[in-house]
Amino acid sequence: MHWLLLKIQSTEQQADQLSDALMDLGALSVSIEDAHADTLAEQAIFGEPGDPPPGIWQQNIVTAMLASDADVPALLAAVQAELQLDGLKYQLEQIEEQDWVRATQAQFDPIRVTDTLWIVPSWHQAPNADAINIVLDPGLAFGTGSHPTTHLCLSWLAQLPADLVGNANVLDYGCGSGILAIAAKKLGAATATGVDIDPQAVISSRDNATNNQVNAVFYDSADYLHGQFDIVVANILSSALMVLAPVIAQSCKNGGKVALSGILESQQTMLLTHYAEWFEMDAPIQQEGWVLLTGTKKCL
């Protein structure tokens, strides 16, 4: 069995209309991509919260997946008639059936954080059975350990002194998949708590904690009752870190540790200056253009 991929060149003004028309006329799925993706002309349109609403690329490829017996000329004629277009430029490709689950899984290997801490998808065996192995599959929530921001936080947690982590109450603010709270608990934390604004993240975190047989608790931010913790980690966008700074500071005990990630190198000075009101900040730790900021809560 196979499917057809119909790829139509489109302007910014036509893309959404083309997508809707193709779905109405029987396409199995439709996607819109930057026609210059993976080139120097690729156009960035997605910003952080608070930025202007994203638009769409100026030059697009609208891709429709069709059944193998689809009448492509008739479909194109119907689309052009409905939208009053003429001379659409397109390509037609054939895609063969395959084991999509196996093909997807093949893209994800175990991730080494340190020699003693690994992130292992459930379909893999742990490369080091004696290490702390967090079983975590790619899912809807952010945080599989592959992104530098998550990797920086995990590495920092793993390298904290054992006596500091061993008796700590840890808060993962913006928990995503729950990976940081789970890692903290596996590293010996007394308690691990996660909170997120996304209900799917809370569900994912709870499932991942169960799969890893750790006792961590996760809350929707609307239901979270604020407390104080020995260690607070927050791997979220820099704009959110700025807005939430008073809350994150209040959540950390005097003398407690904070770790902030999701920060680009160009944003580190702004964040360092802002958080210096509450924390004695350490030197930034950098990886692939991203920065981890850590510090110790002042006795205010």
From TrEMBL:
GO process annotations (BP): methylation
Catalysis performed (reactions): L-lysyl-[protein] + 3 S-adenosyl-L-methionine = N(6),N(6),N(6)-trimethyl-L-lysyl-[protein] + 3 S-adenosyl-L-homocysteine + 3 H(+)
One matching Pfam family: PrmA
One GO MF term: methyltransferase activity
Keyword Disulfide bond (UniProt): no
Enzyme class at the top of the EC tree: transferase
EC number(s) stated in the UniProt entry for this protein: 2.1.1.-
Location(s), subcellular: Cytoplasm
Binding site for S-adenosyl-L-methionine: T150, G174, D196, N235
GO cellular component: ribosome
Keywords, sorted A to Z: Cytoplasm, Methyltransferase, Ribonucleoprotein, Ribosomal protein, S-adenosyl-L-methionine, Transferase
HAMAP family registered for this protein in UniProt: Methyltr_PrmA
Free-text function comment from the UniProt entry: Methylates ribosomal protein L11.
Protein family: Belongs to the methyltransferase superfamily. PrmA family.
Name this protein carries in UniProt: Ribosomal protein L11 methyltransferase
Taxonomic source organism: Methylophilus aquaticus
